[in-house]
Amino acid sequence: MHDEFKTLRKFDAGKGREGFLYSLPALEEQGIGKISRLPVSIRIVLESLLRNCDGKKARRKDVETLANWNAKSPANSEIPFVVARIVLQDFTGVPLVVDLAAMRSAVKRLGRNPKIIEPLVPVDLVVDHSVQVDFFGSARALELNLEMEFKRNRERYQFLKWGQQAFKTFQLIPPGIGIVHQVNLEYLAKGVLSSQPSTLNSQLYFPDTLVGTDSHTTMINGLGVVGWGVGGWTAGLLFDARSGGRAHERAIARRRYRD
Question: pTM, whole model, 2 decimals?
Answer without folding.
Answer: 0.83
